[in-house]
Amino acid sequence: MADVKDAAPGSAVEPVAPASAGTAVVPSEVIENPGFPPHRPRITDVDPAKEALAQRRVTGLFFISIIGSVLAAAFYIAFPIVPGDIASVRVNTLTVGLAMAFSLLGIGIGTVHWAKALISDIEIPEDRHTTKGKPETVARVSEIFTQANEESGFGRRTLIRNSLIGALVFFPLPGIVLFRDLAPANEEPNSLLRHTLWDKNVRLTRDPDGTPVRAADVVYGSAYHIIPEGIEEHEDYLEQKAKAAVLLMRIRPEDLHEEDYKKSWSYDGIVAYSKICTHVGCPVALYEQQTHHLLCPCHQSEFDVSDGAKVIFGPASRPLPQLPITVDADGYLVARSDFHEPVGPSFWERLGEDGRK
Q1: How many CB atoms lie within 10 A of CB 213?
Q2: Which domains does the chain have, with CATH numbers?
Q3: What are the distances in angstroms from CA 103 to CA 59, 79, 168, 317?
Q4: CA torsion sign, 340 to 342 to 348 to 351?
Q5: Nearest C-alpha neighbor of 228 from the set 201, 267, 190
């Protein structure tokens, strides 16, 4: 490494020995901070007419977003999807999609245009300092927010501010309309999800081939995807399957921790639980045979099969509903009844069989 002569601050520094590969080379001149380049004012900064025009454009874009949100909801109602009619699917998708695109573009382009044309673009330095939450810090934060409000014009340009707020308020409208239409208008979700195709003596069959399941064929450590016998004969097959899908598992009877009134719901260590996660309705399909835990892959809710499928981790708020089962005279697994509580996610208040929430 080359030695460097001692030098006073600000003076040129010269290396004593020639620099080799990997050696830091000290410049012979001190590089001064060039500072900020000269500020170039925008046309909206010097021409009030152009500034007013830019404000009208931004406001117009936000209003376009509001109109797009409203039209998306209106088109969804005006051009409904007719089962079996592919043309209705195309028209619905096209009109709703275009309206939602205008809603998104209105907010996006309007915000970008506001930032580029109206918000102050003067460069300012900001020294780094430790933040300790002292009164001085709080005062400085308040000052920064005040300065940001002045530079953006959010408080001063009320028309732009109000139109942006309006666009953000109307933006979720299409999603609300689409999600609300997932359930029939004249029926409550609680009643729709309370009843499935499971009933007394309905055989448990494998999904998707519909093969009946014998109790003797259910091995320890495996998970079987189960559907009610004859479900494929229904016109609304997919809707019924979405409610009635079940996971069947077998664990050693001594490992089961069952409440007294549920002891007749299992058969020789074989238990059946709804496959629909009680968080947002994803399919719970990952079974860990050593711990007897079921995992939902969407948001990692975890249920303990050996203890009533109770929630042991994750955002789910209640256990998986259990399907009471037994065997028929031929040794096939059959349901004792339907589920005793509604299946699916806990988006709404649910009533138990005793009428309590």
Answers
A1: 23
A2: 43-117 (no CATH), 192-335 (2.102.10.10)
A3: 13, 19, 10, 34
A4: negative
A5: 201
pLDDT profile of the chain (357 residues), mean per 10: 46 50 60 80 89 92 93 92 87 93 93 88 70 72 77 72 84 79 64 83 93 93 92 86 93 90 93 93 88 92 94 92 95 94 72 49
The predicted pLDDT at position 179 comes to 73
Q: Which residue has the tokens 């399907």?
A: 323
Confidence (pLDDT) at 274 = 95
